[in-house]
Amino acid sequence: EVQLVESGGGLVQPGGSLRLSCAASGFTFSSHWMTWVRQAPGKGLEWVANIKEDGSEKYYVDSVKGRFTVSRDNAKNSLYLQMNSLRGEDTAVYYCVRSYSYWGQGTLVTVSS
Amino acid sequence: DIQMTQSPSSLSAFVGDRVTITCRASQGISNYLIWFQQKPGRAPKPLISGASSLESGVPSKFSGSGSGTDFTLTISSLQPEDFATYYCQQYYSHPITFGQGTRLEIK
Which of A12, A22, B52, B76 could tie A16 with a disulfide, CB 3.0–4.6 Å? Predict the structure, then answer.
């Protein structure tokens, strides 16, 4: 069974940093693109970033370029999102996604003073 | 960036009704389109990929059609569990983009 479990969310002040993790199991992690999608409270879905199977290609939505970094460790079956210079508009539930068919339960990031 | 525009933004219907939601892309995306259902507090659930292919385990009351720029999601014989928010998403090119969502409510 495919499982994606996010962690690392929480309350952070504007300008601060946070690192999200996603532990994957039930499939061959190194064979799949992985994606982060977020959803601000009461709002729609926003694709944030994705990363190729071997980490050689990464893509970001414009609003996070230069601030967020997606990475993966295939040996640990884990996906990461390093978030720096956080802003209030980054407040959202962050989902780890595989192939858009499998989604984690999400982790809430709140950026507030 | 490819803009995805859904209509309507909200929709009220009766149990048993058939409804159609449309999604328009700002440029051609072939059939690189997914439809999702999302209920409050839950992760989105994929219903249809490739514009018209039903995901495993999704009932056949859901159907998708379209190619290029215009797409539709049709739900037949609405049941209480179908009242949710629906999103389209293009995966033709980066950045991946979603429609703004269509909230389906019980009348």
Answer: A12
